[in-house]
Design brief:
Layout lengths: L5 E3 L16 H9 L3 H7 L6 H8 L4 E3 L4 E7 L2 E6 L4 E5 L2
Parallel strand pairs: 1-2
Antiparallel strand pairs: 3-4, 4-5
GO molecular function: monooxygenase activity
Keywords: Monooxygenase, Oxidoreductase
InterPro entries: MOase
Length: 94
């Protein structure tokens, strides 16, 4: 909680796929703390992905589509993620 996250998606848009999402009691507590537990309980069959739920809930996320990872290099406390389009994403680890 409170950590910024980024999703690097290799496809150019969100994909609709079928998946299974299994959780235990502590996981549901974390999802409740994020404010999405009830939504998942009510609409778990209709859920198309957690990203959609995060967007609906207003949880800030960053998405980079068409982002095939070419390499990851360590640079001090950071990691540099090189993408196929030539761009570089710098991460911070605290």
């Amino acid at each position: 909680m409170g950590l910024k996250s980024m999703v690097l998606e290799s496809w150019e848009n969100l994909r609709v796929t079928r998946f299974a999402f299994t959780t235990f009691t502590n996981a549901w507590k974390a999802l409740d703390a994020l404010g999405i537990g009830d939504t998942l309980r009510e609409q778990h069959i209709l859920l198309q992905g957690l990203v959609a739920t995060f967007t609906i809930s207003g949880i800030p996320t960053s998405h980079i589509f068409c982002s095939k990872v070419v390499s990851i290099e360590e640079h001090g406390y950071a990691k540099l993620i090189q993408l196929a389009d030539g761009s570089v994403v710098k991460t911070k680890l605290k």
